[in-house]
Amino acid sequence: MSSELPAPTAAPLFPLSVAQALARIEAREPELHAFISRRPAADVVAEAAARADEAPRSPLHGVPFSLKDEWETLDLPTTTGSWRHRARKSSLDSSVVQVFRAAGAVLLGKTNLSDLGLAPEATSWLVGATRNPLDLTRTAGGSSGGAAAAVADGMSGFDWGTDIGGSIRYPAALCGVFGLRLSSETWPITGMFPIVPPAMTWMCAQGPLARTLPQLRAVLDVARPIVRTGPARGPFQAREAVLYLPGAGNRWPRFADDVTPALARVVGAPNENHGLPSIAKVQWIFNGVWCSHLMDLLDAEPGLRLVPSIGAVLGAVVGRGSLGRGFHPATAEILLQIAVGRALLYHSKPRALAAAHAVRAGFQRLWDRGAVVVMPVCGWPAPRPGRTNWNPRLIECTVPGNLADATGLSIPWGTFDDGLPRALQLLGPPGSEDELIDLGERLLASPGAPGIAPSAAAA
């Protein structure tokens, strides 16, 4: 008999099993509210057993996954987090659900988001507010907050979200997981409800949330042949790092000091030679696009008209649900701000779009010289549920990526003073997702990296 020890077995890329995910959902969903709808457990178990009897189709074979409830699915309602659409049935499966199921992944259900995906907090009349798995007194963020919470808590192996103002990167940052915004230029969205107004589709993107960068890469490799339908660009190579910093007053004032050692080891000492408007100015430009397109937003929502919509919004803000559930208050507050901005400040669509495209051109000049833009995802820890709209600066660092239609990667990077996760983001040109993941792996392996905050559940 040989005295040699057997070679160690490599840890599985996705160690979470369907059985473990279902058990975690059963234990934690009553307090987390990560899911809007779930498939019957018996159906999930039967499908997992069938996958176990097959030869692996892909790295995602047998992996439990979830989808943000904006993706059309035949066997589950697609509500976009709205009470108005609580019983809505899809007429098709989106390419997103098709590609993952064809790869052998097992769908668990649809995750919570804000009504219409507008508020940066996953809270709806359908299931309530999604709680942060790391601190149940805090929000998981949004609008893909249910996705981030499910992944962070070990309820789901991965999720696929959407991002029109930071809706993937922001909740990923708050929950301590990885989130990737894929540029709409190279990954155009199809099979999403409701349809984004045509004049704003360039800001709306999709992408995965997962516990590790190798998991993100595996999900992308499976999705790419079907979901990435836009024109390919040449390879991007990061030759320098440019810091793009928010103004004072946030809870991460030493961001530059905290990220510089790792950046210096990987791409050289970072600089602030970006030539972009201030982040505060960019947020005003972002607001201008939304406000000037108010009527387009209403037209994109089936059945909405201006006068009844205004009544429903005001009723939600004032009545907080006591006058009906036409809109959730968190979304109603955003719509009211858009309407007031349209009435008082932002009248011209062409002017708003010209300013937005100037920001995008500024980013493109940086990418042309090989610069990756580095900034926080958010300068504040997760707020308490219901208070997200109180701080308009919470998404000030994510909206530049939407105006630029950037590829944006959120990477957990230490913790705030209260122990909740922080995250940095890398912004690169359309189609640079593989390069950003490579860079992220090198940064995390650097002696200057702080390490990833503990997750709510063991991987």
Description of the structure:
The model has no long low-confidence stretch (mean pLDDT 93). This protein has helices spanning 18-32, 41-52, 95-102, 145-152, 169-175, 213-227, 255-267, 279-292, 294-300, 306-319, 329-344, 349-368, 399-403, 433-445, and strands spanning 35-38, 64-68, 106-111, 123-124, 128-129, 131-132, 135-139, 158-163, 178-181, 205-210, 240-243, 371-376, 407-415, 421-428. The strands form three sheets. It has a ten-stranded mixed beta sheet, with helices on both faces. The radius of gyration is 21 Å and the shape is globular. It starts with 17 loop residues before the first helix and ends in a 14-residue tail after the last helix. Helices cover 36% and strands 15% of the residues. The longest helix is centred in the C-terminal third of the chain and has 20 residues, at 349-368. With 459 residues, it is of the alpha+beta class. The protein has a single domain (14-459), classed as Alpha-Beta Complex (Amidase signature (AS) enzymes). It has 14 helices and 14 strands.
Q: Helix and strand layout, with pairings?
A:
Elements: H1 18-32, E1 35-38, H2 41-52, E2 64-68, H3 95-102, E3 106-111, E4 123-124, E5 128-129, E6 131-132, E7 135-139, H4 145-152, E8 158-163, H5 169-175, E9 178-181, E10 205-210, H6 213-227, E11 240-243, H7 255-267, H8 279-292, H9 294-300, H10 306-319, H11 329-344, H12 349-368, E12 371-376, H13 399-403, E13 407-415, E14 421-428, H14 433-445
Parallel strand pairs: 2-3, 2-8, 11-12
Antiparallel strand pairs: 1-3, 4-5, 6-7, 8-10, 9-10, 9-13, 12-14, 13-14
Helix pairs in contact: 3-6, 4-5, 6-14, 7-14, 8-11, 8-12, 10-11
